[in-house]
């Protein structure tokens, strides 16, 4: 995908575009969920005047409040994650194209003239939100029927809401494009020579921290700590991936009693897709960012297991922290829903923490995570030292 700059051509390679798939998927999930629930929340108001029974009114109020809570929680969480992922990709792109950007600055282009072309990163949001919006409308007949499966409420007709299309598709695309330009402009505020020489600036905080770190740590332990410290954003992605898996899978098994089987399946699928996508992108970036280090370790005789432990092993505790946070989150959310949203509804069971289900989800998570690490360990084994040397 090319980016034109006043007659010049700055190329974004296929690899750079492929990384934006993560933002597309997260945007898709956020808009898919929000479109269904917000549309249902708008359409359900058309039957409010037809409700004459108190118990039906309670059910109606619960449905409206549920739509608001689910949209706010899921949409807000995924929005924050999308912004962080977008900023990470822009920073990564600038870091890996410093010399090309330095040449443009040396030719007289200002930071803004270069940065304004980063609007193209907002297209990933457009693709995700648009497909999520369309998919939601395709799924809506099933969703509306499930929400009123017992025919407690009068029939609810599906309507197209232009306001939702604007707020969930057009506005996020514009905002993300603006954020991309502003952030790129800030990241380009470096001396041209630094970009051309690929010089990394180090803050005084980092220097102070380095002085406090013991220098007599074993090499593999020190490398593991440095990898975590230098890739703080990737730590967030690892935690977020395990958080999604933990929260969504455990929550889905409670939907049979609190909502419907369809809702449970939908929540589980979204959780697994988000977890696998984020985990894949994070670990791939970790390995690509340390590929020269891995090559040097192999030259000095370190085994595949030692390389994997030094580069990827430090993220394992972060993954389990994310699983714990996801467990706490899903328990608190469902407890609040049952206690406050459905407090006046009959036949709604009191929600209690299911320890056995948590253990089952934890076992599946450990299998999935360790399988991913094993696959990437083999990828480390197949890294060609010759190819890396030729690149330099």
Describe the overall structure.
This protein is mainly α and 392 residues long. 76% of the residues lie in helices and 2% in strands. The protein contains 18 helices and two strands. Helix 11 runs antiparallel to helix 13. It is flat.
Determine the N-to-C terminus distance.
Answer: 25 Å
Instruction: Encode the helix/strand succession as letters.
Output: EEHHHHHHHHHHHHHHHHHH
Biggest sheet architecture: 2 strands, antiparallel
Helix content percent band: over 70%
Number of strands: 2
Binned strand content: under 5%
As laid out across the biggest beta sheet, the strand order is 1-2
Q: Helix tally?
A: 18
Give the structural class: mainly alpha
Mean pLDDT figure: 77
- Radius of gyration computed on alpha carbons: 24 Å
| Low-confidence sequence ranges | 1-11, 200-216
User: Given the C-alpha coordinates, what overall shape results?
Assistant: flat
């Amino acid at each position: 995908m090319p980016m034109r700059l006043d007659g010049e051509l700055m190329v974004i390679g296929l690899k750079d575009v492929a990384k934006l798939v993560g933002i597309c998927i997260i945007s898709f999930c956020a808009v898919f969920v929000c479109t269904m629930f917000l549309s249902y929340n708008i359409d359900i108001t058309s039957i409010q005047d037809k409700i004459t029974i108190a118990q039906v009114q309670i059910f109606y109020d619960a449905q409206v409040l549920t739509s608001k809570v689910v949209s706010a929680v899921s949409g807000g969480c995924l929005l924050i994650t999308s912004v962080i992922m977008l900023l990470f990709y822009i920073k990564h792109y600038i870091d890996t194209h410093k010399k090309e950007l330095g040449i443009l600055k040396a030719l007289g282009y200002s930071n803004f003239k270069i940065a304004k072309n980063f609007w193209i990163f907002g297209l990933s949001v457009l693709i995700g939100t648009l497909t999520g919006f369309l998919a939601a409308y395709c799924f809506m007949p099933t969703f509306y029927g499930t929400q009123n499966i017992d025919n407690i409420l009068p029939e609810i007709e599906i309507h197209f809401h232009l306001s939702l299309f604007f707020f969930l598709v057009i506005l996020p695309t514009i905002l993300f494009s603006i954020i991309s330009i502003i952030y790129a402009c800030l990241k380009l505020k470096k001396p041209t020579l630094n970009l051309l020489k690929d010089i990394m600036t180090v803050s005084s905080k980092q220097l102070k921290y380095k002085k406090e770190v013991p220098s007599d740590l074993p090499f593999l332990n020190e490398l593991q700590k440095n990898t975590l410290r230098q890739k703080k954003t990737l730590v967030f992605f690892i935690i977020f991936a395990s958080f999604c898996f933990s929260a969504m899978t455990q929550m889905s098994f409670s939907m049979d009693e609190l909502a419907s089987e369809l809702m449970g399946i939908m929540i589980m699928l979204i959780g697994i897709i988000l977890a696998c996508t984020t985990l894949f992108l994070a670990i791939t970036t970790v390995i690509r960012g340390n590929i020269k280090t891995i090559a040097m370790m192999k030259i000095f005789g370190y085994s595949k297991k030692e390389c994997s432990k030094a580069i990827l092993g430090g993220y394992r505790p972060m993954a389990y922290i994310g699983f714990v946070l996801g467990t706490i989150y899903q328990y608190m959310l469902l407890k609040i829903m049952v206690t406050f949203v459905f407090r006046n509804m009959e036949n709604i069971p009191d929600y209690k923490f299911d320890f056995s289900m948590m253990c089952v989800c934890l076992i599946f998570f450990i299998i999935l995570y360790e399988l991913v690490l094993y696959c990437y360990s083999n990828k480390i084994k197949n890294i060609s030292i010759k190819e890396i040397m030729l690149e330099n």
